[in-house]
Design brief:
Distance between the termini: 23 Å
Structural class: mainly alpha
Number of helices: 6
């Protein structure tokens, strides 16, 4: 029997991170064609108090791997935040997807009701059922960071559209 949360989470992470990977490829090509310093795109942000593109991609990957790990009942892998280039970010996406896709449907058995406890940036604990954790916490945060990364690039002239954002499905 396949867990619905396995299908729901891994398919979304694969689709959206695949789209983000392609968008980053277009950003790299855009920087070369327009003779833009690639770091200008990596440090671009929509507003001064928001994370730059580099961090948005890192956090999107962090949500994909941590949500998947918690639902599967395994330890969340730690990735160092050492990326300096678009190619580095694409490698992080590949590493994230390799982890997500290494998890088996059997590991997700019972994840709908598994208790997930988080401490998102505060000492205060939040408790979720696996179902609520995925749908009300994990995916919304993941989509926020993927969408913001896309918006930063679009705002900076990278010619991407809705199809690029959505990726392959």
């Amino acid at each position: 029997m396949t867990s619905s949360l396995h299908i729901t989470s891994t398919s979304v992470f694969n689709q959206m991170l695949g789209g983000l990977n392609s968008v980053l490829g277009k950003a790299d090509a855009h920087a070369v064609a327009k003779k833009i310093e690639p770091n200008a795109l990596l440090q671009a942000r929509l507003f001064p108090d928001m994370f730059p593109l580099l961090r948005q991609v890192q956090v999107a990957c962090d949500f994909a791997k941590s949500v998947s790990a918690r639902l599967a009942g395994v330890e969340v892998p730690s990735f160092e935040d050492t990326e300096l280039t678009i190619v580095d970010l694409q490698a992080r996406i590949a590493k994230t997807l390799a982890f997500v896709n290494s998890l088996t449907p059997q590991q997700f058995q019972g994840s709908d009701t598994r208790e997930i406890v988080t401490q998102a940036g505060t000492p205060k604990e939040k408790r979720f059922s696996g179902h609520s954790y995925l749908l009300n916490y994990g995916l919304p945060h993941f989509f926020f960071h993927v969408t913001t990364a896309y918006a930063i690039l679009r705002h900076n002239g990278v010619e991407v559209g809705k199809k690029d954002y959505i990726g392959t499905y």
